[in-house]
């Protein structure tokens, strides 16, 4: 059953249309990410779901009820922001209990719920501390506990990991996802970080200039990007111009190599998208091949990253470092194998 629906949502600030015909259906317990570059409208969508911003048009429903015009405190939503928005003058326990206190819950009930939440975030002994006595990662866990304490129907997270250093960020990804699963709470997570979105989400909404370009599983978004923007924004993508030799069989010529893609193409020129990891060193039976010269080689341990000249075009290739293979060298002319089914046709 669809738990949260956003239909035909629009938001303009003056003449600036920042959210355009935004539609989304979220299942109960689902973890959805809004992914896109800075300024594309992610926070604005989230703030409209929370009720901090009213839509210019469109509807938001939660559990079948239209909440579009309700005030934030009537929507039963928990929110976590990028900057630690903890109250600095309150203890951790008082921060976590804040929402329940505002609702007028009895002290004993608040204390029990606070203890439960602190255990959930793995900080059971920290109730008497003040925010400044905690690390950034601990503060964000407390912010999460504070958002969850009143048992919201929906959890909204706006770049909650962006201000943290890399290691903490990765461990908190897993922790947030584990807590979200344990509670089964419907969650919308905003990020500009594709790795965060790919690793955490049930589904991702890729946003671009106020529009949802594609909604899909991480696998779909990466492997079957719906637009050129999605293809370029999520993951690394080589874009190569190819001359179409035979539209029916998908025979194209790219930088001096011939590929048969096995699917119909328009005539003239097309733009092919190739992920660096789609290519392997050496010719393989049944596979298409590209020939080029290595201009750069970065040894990264598990991966060897190459740059090649293919005639007049450039290609980045990531090879797995297998100990059996003799590594290629700069200046080598090499053949690369490609499954033609992998090649993305991202524009004509
Ligand atoms: P994101 O979170 O994806 O970085 P935002 O939703 O914060 O993007 O902003 C989208 C656009 O809306 C930006 O161009 C921003 O300047 C504009 N915007 C956001 N909030 C306001 C506001 N209160 N008044 C005017 N313009 C705003
Ligand atoms: Mg934002």
Automatic annotation (TrEMBL):
- From which domain of life does this come? Bacteria
This chain belongs to which protein, by name? Putative spermidine/putrescine transport system ATP-binding protein
| A GO MF label | ATP binding
In this chain the ABC transporter domain maps to 4-234
Cite the PROSITE patterns for this sequence: ABC_TRANSPORTER_1, ABC_TRANSPORTER_2
What Pfam family does this protein match (any one)?
Answer: TOBE_2
Ranked from the top, the taxonomy reads:
Bacteria, Pseudomonadati, Pseudomonadota, Alphaproteobacteria, Rhodobacterales
Its Gene Ontology biological processes?
quaternary ammonium group transport
Q: Which PANTHER family match?
A: SPERMIDINE/PUTRESCINE IMPORT ATP-BINDING PROTEIN POTA, SPERMIDINE_PUTRESCINE IMPORT ATP-BINDING PROTEIN POTA
What does the UniProt keyword field contain? ATP-binding, Nucleotide-binding, Transport
Key word ATP-binding present: yes
Xref: InterPro entries: AAA+_ATPase (IPR003593), ABC_SmlMolc_Importer (IPR050093), ABC_transporter-like_ATP-bd (IPR003439), ABC_transporter-like_CS (IPR017871), Mo/tungstate-bd_C_term_dom (IPR008995), NA-bd_OB-fold (IPR012340), P-loop_NTPase (IPR027417), Transp-assoc_OB_typ2 (IPR013611)
A cellular component annotation (GO) from this entry: ATP-binding cassette (ABC) transporter complex
């Amino acid at each position: 059953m669809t738990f949260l629906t956003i239909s035909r949502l629009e938001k303009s600030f003056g003449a600036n249309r920042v959210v355009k015909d935004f539609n989304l259906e979220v299942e109960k317990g689902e973890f959805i990410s809004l992914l896109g570059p800075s300024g594309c409208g992610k926070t604005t969508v989230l703030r409209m779901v929370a009720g901090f911003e009213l839509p210019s048009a469109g509807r938001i429903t939660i559990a079948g009820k239209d909440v579009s015009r309700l005030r934030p405190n009537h929507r039963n939503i928990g929110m976590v922001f990028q900057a630690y928005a903890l109250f600095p003058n309150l203890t951790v326990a008082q921060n976590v209990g804040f929402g329940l206190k505002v609702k007028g819950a009895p002290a004993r009930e608040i204390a029990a719920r606070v203890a439960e939440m602190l255990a959930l975030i793995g900080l059971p002994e920290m109730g008497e501390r003040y925010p400044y006595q905690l690390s950034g990662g601990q503060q964000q866990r407390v912010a999460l506990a504070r958002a969850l304490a009143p048992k919201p129907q929906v959890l909204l997270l706006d770049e909650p990991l962006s201000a943290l250093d890399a290691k903490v960020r990765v461990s908190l990804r897993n922790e947030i996802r584990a807590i979200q699963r344990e509670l089964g709470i419907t969650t919308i997570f905003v990020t500009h970080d594709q790795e965060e979105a790919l690793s955490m989400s049930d589904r991702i909404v890729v946003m671009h200039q106020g529009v949802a370009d594609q909604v899909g599983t991480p696998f779909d978004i990466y492997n079957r990007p719906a637009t050129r923007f999605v293809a370029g924004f999520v993951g690394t993508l080589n874009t190569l111009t190819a001359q179409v030799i035979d539209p029916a069989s998908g025979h194209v010529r790219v930088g001096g190599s011939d590929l048969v893609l096995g699917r119909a193409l328009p005539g003239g020129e097309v733009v092919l998208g190739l992920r660096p990891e789609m290519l392997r060193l050496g010719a393989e039976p049944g596979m298409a091949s590209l020939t080029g010269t290595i201009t750069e080689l970065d040894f990264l341990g598990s991966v060897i990253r190459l740059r090649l000249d293919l005639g007049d075009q450039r290609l980045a290739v990531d090879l797995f470092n297998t100990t059996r293979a003799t590594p290629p060298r700069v200046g080598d002319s090499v053949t690369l194998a490609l499954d033609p089914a992998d090649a993305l046709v991202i524009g004509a």
